[in-house]
Amino acid sequence: MSRAASISKSELNQLAVLATAKNVMIEITRNGTTIRVSPHRAGTAVDENEESDIDREIEAFKVKHGIS
Fold first, then answer.
1. Entry pTM
2. 3: closest CA among 24, 35, 32?
3. Based on the number of CB atoms within 10 Å of its own CB, is 35 exposed (0-12), middle (13-18) or buried (19 or more)?
4. Strands 33-37 and 26-30
């Protein structure tokens, strides 16, 4: 049996707006349940055709150590 939510949808939405506006994580604890709300951070676009730094480092390591 599930128990009632410890926070309403409108409260959660208000926390999300505040977290985004202030760029902070908000943490609240109610009835023994901790809820964390973080601001949304859009990821950067990745060009899948572009070789990443780690790929270049791996290739350099392989060349240096004679690994094929």
1. 0.52
2. 32
3. middle
4. antiparallel
Distance set, CA 63 to CA 20, 51, 52, 55, 60 (Å): 46, 16, 17, 12, 5
- Residue 67 carries which side chain, given as an amino acid letter? I
Rounded Cα distance between 43 and 23, Å, is: 15
> Looking at residues 39-47, what average pLDDT do you find?
70
Q: What is the rounded distance in angstroms from the CA atom of residue 45 to the CA atom of residue 59?
A: 24
pLDDT tens digits for 15-35?
999 999 999 999 999 888 899
